[in-house]
Design brief:
- The complex is a heterodimer.
- Chain A is of the alpha/beta class.
- Chain A is 22% helix and 37% strand.
- In chain B, the strands form 3 sheets. Chain B has a 10-stranded mixed β-sheet. In chain B, strands 13-15-18-21-19-16 form a 6-stranded parallel beta barrel.
- Classes of the chains: A alpha/beta, B alpha/beta.
- At the A-B interface, strand 20 and strand 21 of A face strand 22, strand 23 and strand 24 of B.
Amino acid sequence: MTVTAIHPCVEALLQGSRGLPRMPLAWLNARRGAALERANALTVPTARDEEWRFTDITPLTRIVFRPAAAAPRLGMSDIAQYIAPEATAHLAFVDGVFVPELSANAGLPYGVVVTHLTAAFGTHAAVIEPHLARHAAFERDLFAALNTACLRDGAFIWIAKNQRCPTPVQLLFISTQQETAAHPRCLVVVESGADCTLIEDHVGVGDGAYFNNAVSEIVVGERARVQHVKLQREARSAFHIANSAVTLAKDATYTSNAVTFGARISRHNLAVVQQGEGATCRIDGLALISGRQLADTHTAIDHARPNGKSAQLHKCIVGDAAHAVFNGKVLVRAGAQLTDSAQQSRNLLLSPKAHVDTKPQLEIFADDVKCSHGATVGQLDTEHVFYLKSRGLSEERARSLLTYAFGAEVIDRIPVPSLVEHLERAVLEQTQARPQAGGEAS
Amino acid sequence: MSTVLEHLVNQPYKHGFVTEIEAETAPKGLSEDTIRLISAKKNEPEWLLEFRLKAYRHWLTMAEPAWPNVKYPKIDFQDIIYYSAPKPKKLNSMDEVDPELLRTFEKLGVPMNERAALAGVAVDVIFDSVSVATTYKQKLADVGIIFCSISEAVREHPELVRRYLGTVVPSGDNYYAALNSAVFTDGSFCFIPRGVKCPMELSTYFRINTQESGQFERTLIVAEEGASVSYLEGCTAPKFDTNQLHAAVVELVALDNARIKYSTVQNWYAGDERGKGGIYNFVTKRGLCKGVNSHISWTQVETGSAITWKYPSCVLLGENSVGEFYSVALTNHHQQADTGTKMVHIGRDTRSTIVSKGISAGSSNNSYRGLVKIGPKADRARNYSQCDSMLIGARCGANTFPYIQVQNATARVEHEATTSKIGEDQLFYFQSRGVSPEEAVSMIINGFCKDVFQQLPMEFAVEATKLLGLKLEGSVG
């Protein structure tokens, strides 16, 4: 189906790109222009598109989102609860706008830069130019194109060669206003031999139906290591679409822990390309949803070079009438011999109306590889429940404990202890809540 | 190692001869006139012509599916012969069958005379578009089983055909099913009445002979309450440089407590080593477990065809019904296979098992595409799927696309997939024990496919093992 007229929803979202000042950097203007062209040409995905078959975003297109007006005044006390104590550096963006007063990036070691893009354009243009809008492809993705067309500011992290950022860096994207759209952007460049832990945190304050359309690009150099934690705790009526594009050089290591709690409809596209030999990635995800939430995770691991390793565990806990979607593609290109890849999709349905669509997908064009995937959908094991009951736990308590344990497997792998503690508590609270209560998102 | 394997995988096709036999063919091309001609040739009743025309009109509005993971040039549906039949003769016994035809089946190893008695298999033979012979009719009729060509069934048992035709695969189900519904020429019909256990294996043998013809057969099997049947299907075609289209539809209906086991060994001509010629095998197969405790089992060994596009499916409607799918798909040279199954759980306590083994060699591409769907009312539904792929050589591809859709919290669904290759160390181990590399490969592959071969009736299991041998390891014998 081709729609020649631009969808009113896209039209409104593009409002954000109109008022943008031209940047002093010609290449940036050119990339934004190219993205704008694609955003105008691409149609809004529908269930007829294979990639969006199970995720109906009609509710998103029915709302006309405008660019956020002046950022509301949030104080440090409003956001303190979200900041992990381990993170000595954090950047805060409120409704897509960088707020220096709420951010802290002083006292970082030599060779570690944590700042916002507009500031970095002046100082690190040579680092940014080869990467910004180069990894997250916008040719065929409307939302990546929209984000890039509206690109003005964003987070920028650069770790110089062989440097370590000793503590996690937290990027906090806070949405506060009803019916607004924000397009958060991150660029993380970790040079060869360097090391960095990143917390990308999307938080909703209040209960508005806003739209958060994020794009992150993460570039991991030779022998470098990046640990990426993505928390999605948007408001329960919000829309969250995120594209994460990760490029790994030779012998690079990338781990991702993506935790999805919030939003009415959320979609996370995570694409990892192993561009160098011997790269390793470990991708874990947990979606804990209830009510009428929809959480969709699409991951793609591209083994383009030999000796790559990938391991993935994706779990969904689905209550009430919620709907979880998982599509995990593993591509082993011709010549990518000795690839070792394992993928697991585990789904727990807690209520009769809960609903899961999962599609692990293997595409292999090399013969000397070890690839496997597994998918399960089910409910709690009655024998496990019986065992706990035989030890004196109530049925409800036993179920809550088992559900918690199911989710904890993913959460325990997060490399930030305070987040592990916080998230485990959140899972326990939600699983203990009676089905109708739903539980709060954070 | 690669030279051993390369040698093994390049075996010639043994069924590639053409039989010079007088045939009556309709002119090329597809139109309402062609359909009326087919219908008139077969003296069909008005309702069937209407069924065909309705399907044709619907087909005109449909688009060819683009989602399968296969590539081929656009098919010109006007360049196909839709009806080709050996010159009609009134046949009273097997002795009157054209000796040329009998020799053909002799060459193919299809038992049609006394050898059939020894094998204990009743055979219906379809040559191009027309059923030429059915054996053991009388013996089957004694227990009430109807086994004949579908054209004969339309004449003799119109009420049965009318009641079930198109109920499992509606005429507008998909592009090729619609085309088949419009132009199907023959196929087998099998009806097992209430409580009857079919005393022998039933078998249909399909052969495409005429160049530029398409084969559009239609098979309908109905097992009434408590009945059971095991049905085998084999296929071959001569070698031509052009591609031929084979678009069949198979419908199975199992009522309460009935069991249907459907086995296929598909060895259509696959094209030469450069990918020229071969059959396009675009088939819709679906079974409906209509009654309680009914059971439908598909077993397939897919070794032929330039392109295979086929998903034998089970719709599990009856409570406690069971669906099974066992498949071995082997692709070599430039073959492409996109095959798998659909298990649609609608009733309570329904169970399904999927075991799929894909072997790709040469520059071929082998995809498993499966759907397991658990409807909201399918309480306690259970599925177990396993798909394993083996790659031989560095130019082939193996893909898996399992769709799992669950709308019921009490369901349990498991899916597992692995990919492997024949390891240097495995071959070395065999050789250290005095087994030649050829034999080692054959043993490893047979071991890989064991779970599926065990499901085949004995005669077919032997044939399937031989066929894989023919395809992969002929240099041994």
